[in-house]
Design brief:
single chain, 290 residues, alpha/beta, seven-stranded mixed β-sheet, 12 helices
């Protein structure tokens, strides 16, 4: 699907109420395979895009700012939905995809039947802050590395090795196979994966980091939004060692409708690690708010 900015690579399977599955970082569209199969069996139309900088999604113009912010990702989802002629739809997002779902609920609630967020809790007004505890700050070492030019250069030299480090440390050891990582790593070979990765994190605290000004209206709307009116399901891996479960506790006050579930025996990638648990809770949410 061609938007003003991207050639968006996506899959579209099944028929019925549309559900968009938005992958996170560092992951790929193939991470949704088990969830997608389950949803199509239950009568849903499942659409899975590759994010900007991932898979076969490409920028149309080399001069376009490689903006990796959540508002840019949310705009891409709306462009895809418009291109496919979707009216209202559900969004299920993991990690960056979860943040994208929250942004969509803030800026386009009339388009959404419900959202489901995996691994990342809601940040009211889209605000990023330094973690209050040094323990959590230590878990975010990979982010701080990106703020150093030497760190960014090291990541650019071995992006797949950098991604593997997150897979090895964000969930209990042994949760993935070499074949699964290799399939996802193909997505990280996108020529803009490093640029989008670095911008997504560096732009949070480095004011000189470039951003695409076509999304300023969305940024302003997110900054003005605290309460979300879209029914929300939060699924958090009980063994997540990047964003521990405590990071999504006590957020119900920011939603009209909110339910939070811990996924047993799962770390940061619950849809990959425990797809049956995730699918069971997701189907209930979709049926309640379809």
């Amino acid at each position: 699907m061609t938007s003003a900015v991207l050639e968006i690579d996506y899959s579209d399977q099944g028929s019925g109420p549309p559900v968009l599955l938005v992958h996170g970082w560092p992951d790929a569209a193939c991470g949704w395979n088990a969830i997608s199969d389950g949803l199509t069996r239950e009568g849903y139309r499942v659409i899975i895009p590759s994010l900007r900088g991932s898979g076969d999604t490409r920028f149309r113009d080399d001069s376009t700012v490689r903006d990796g912010s959540a508002v840019a990702l949310a705009h891409d989802v709306l462009d895809l939905a418009d291109g496919l002629g979707l009216g209202r739809f559900a969004v299920v997002g993991h990690d960056w995809g979860a943040r994208t779902a929250f942004v969509l609920a803030a800026v386009a609630p009339e388009r959404l039947s419900c959202i489901t967020a995996l691994a990342l809790g809601y940040q009211p007004r889209g605000q990023f802050t330094i973690p209050a505890s040094f323990a959590q700050a230590r878990l975010f070492w990979y982010q701080w590395l990106m703020y150093l030019d030497a760190g960014a250069a090291a990541i650019a030299a071995d992006p797949i090795g950098f991604a593997r480090e997150q897979w090895d440390t964000w969930s209990p050891r042994g949760w993935y196979t070499e074949e699964q990582f290799a399939a996802a790593a193909e997505s990280f070979r996108n020529r803009d994966w490093v640029a989008i990765t670095l911008n997504a994190y560096r732009s949070r605290f480095l004011p000189e980091e470039p951003r695409d000004h076509r999304y300023e209206d969305l940024r302003a709307r997110v900054a003005d939004t605290e309460l979300l009116h879209v029914p929300t399901l939060m699924l958090h891996g009980a063994l997540d060692t990047c964003d521990p479960p405590a990071t999504s506790e006590g957020l119900g006050q920011y939603f009209d409708s909110y339910r939070r579930v811990l996924i047993d025996d799962a770390g940061h990638f619950p849809h990959r690690e425990q797809p049956e648990q995730v699918l069971r809770h997701l189907l209930v949410h979709l049926r309640d708010h379809g």
